[in-house]
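Record 1 of the preview.
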Amino acid sequence: MKQIMLSGSGGQGMILAGIILARAAVRDGFEVTQTQSYGPEARGGASRAEVILDDEPIDFPKVTQADVLLAMTQEAADRFHTRLRPGGTLIVDPMLVHAVPAVDGPVHRVEITRLAREATGRTITANIVALGALNRICRVVTDQALLEAVLESVPRGTEEINRRALEAGMRG
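->
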């Protein structure tokens, strides 16, 4: 079983990223749950997507101890790092998370926002870059399933820019 938490603020696309990751896991034949939570402000408020995937049926749909935490804001890192299991992986964007909380596990600082800007000219694609980086670091799903899930989930006409964003994250 893998428990993954994608967190940030409203407008960063963490909910969509969670949906895409769940779709990719289904393509790879996993049992999957995906839940989401966001503040009442929508844009700017805290948001979180949780994805659990397993070979067996999943009894409880919420993340109890994350194997992977992606934190795209300082608030998200501060708030959710305690939900990371011992030995779990923390991924942060150092442009947005300046004080990385101490965790019992590997920490990966990936300049997700910079990679998005360089690959696509748009920071709005940072959520797709983040998925590529998460999968490169943690090997959650196959690259092909993730690409297909991205292409079926993004708005029509943005497939190529999102492909570039995903590839940027996969390369690091």
